[in-house]
Specification:
- There is one protein chain.
- With 370 residues, this protein is α/β, with parallel strands linked by helices.
- The chain has 14 helices and 16 strands.
- Strands 7, 8, 9, 10, 11, 12, 15 and 16 form an eight-stranded mixed β-sheet that branches. Strands 2-4-3-5-1-6 form a six-stranded mixed β-sheet, sandwiched between helices. A two-stranded antiparallel sheet has the order 13-14.
- The longest helix has 19 residues.
- The radius of gyration is 21 Å and the shape is globular.
- About 5% of the residues have low confidence.
Amino acid sequence: MNKKIIITLILAVCLLGVGWSAGRHNSSPANGPTIGAIIPLTGPLASFGEKLRNGLLLYGEEHPDVNIVFEDDAGESKRAISAFIKLSTVDKANLIVGPFGPVSSAALYASLNEEHLQDTIFLAVSMCADEFKAYVNMLCTYPSPLYQINKSFQFLSREGKKSITPIVTNDAFGQTIAGAFDQGAQNNQLANDGAVLVDGASQQFYTEAAKAIAQKSDVIVVSAASPDVVVKVVKALKERGYRGMIMVATDLDAGVAERFSSILEGVYSMGLPKLEFKGSFFANYKSNYDGQEPDLYATYGYLLPQILDGAQDSTRGNQLTTSDVIKYAKDHSLEFPVDGINFNNQKQIELPMLIYQIQGGKLAEVFVAR
């Protein structure tokens, strides 16, 4: 049996939803692979799913021998598991992109029995959280929280800041980020005055905001999986009269910055990769999607099938392994649609990281950590 390649997208979450039905792209590919995509095309994560879909479709259009089959999991773990079963058994997809997010990805991994584990290789496009390092046959392809925070805190040191107060959610995500904030602070000679925990399901955060302000740190750093929670915390800080530096760690895209410009004005955003496009991808994406520029998720949607398709082709009919995929990614990085993507000795990806400041509802680049 051919091994299945699962690309598990472990990226932070978003609020907006854009619907899309499951289905096929190329109905009759010539000789190339079938790539299954388990991504959220409806539900609260659909805006990311739409961008991933756009990138996947563009790759499929440029490579007509590749067949793309979409399954919408709506960001739900049970639906992600069902989608995997369907794609691997009915569609016979031997390359699978998805699901999106750590919760669904962990649930899918846990659902696999010994037979599945023997027949499946996981390649996780992940923030490389510690728990994922324990999974077998997983390649992390999104910088770890600590990597992102280390790079971002270089900016705070440059600005002469000496101390931070993190505000994080009281869940597993928050615990991971809080630990990374603490280590990142130590690595950059910053004092960590102690994390303030918030309930991500709450609707207001005035008590927690007051507690964070009372610690009188140079910078308050806010992180949550949901940008909505981050915006509400920032709103509470400002309404409590805080006028110091605020830095946020979440997927804060241009749309969120524009919609909540009055709340986020002057706030700094960390942990965003700098996309330096090359080749025809940027122009082709804009042409296909009414002038829209590709973001990280659209770029990943294109890059993932490119790596897997190329790696499979490079095996010349032999069984594809994770080592093949890693080697192909390293050897062919010049063919990627963006510069600066490198794999380190721990098989984790490293990218140039940006610091933005929200200015007039726009993301203004203020610092690049390489």
